[in-house]
Specification:
By secondary structure, the protein is α+β, with helices and mostly antiparallel strands. The protein is built from 4 helices and 7 strands, in the order H-E-H-E-E-E-E-H-E-E-H. The longest helix has 27 residues.
Amino acid sequence: MLLTDDGKVAHRLTHPRYGFEREYLVMVEGKPTPQTLLQLEKGVSLGDWIAKAHRASVIGEGEHGKTWIRLVLKEGKKREVRRMLAAVGHPVHRLIRVRFGPLTLGDLEPGQWRFLNEAEVDTLLRQTRQRARQIAARRARRRSR
């Protein structure tokens, strides 16, 4: 979770147009096949929209028939990861978001928090401004056609 009082940064981080990645480690029931991982990357119908993983990979085996996978998404809709994995037959047992844009969880335990350091704030501000400029340039090119 990231708390900020900067509305522009919050909007740019969360709106899918800006493409900030969210990376998750997920323990699922069973072992997803390469075809299942490819299906997650191509898109899974969740009824009202198609959810796509930017990247999906198996990273290790858990106990009792469970598997750890890494999912990288460019959107962050409510319960999206859980719904995607249930749709392909692999219910979620544990879900940890380890990265949001340029920010990583690091070694924080559940319930802990910390302030961002100066370098993280600078990176966050630089990347959100850069993505905003790229989108504005794309819009300008479209209008000039």
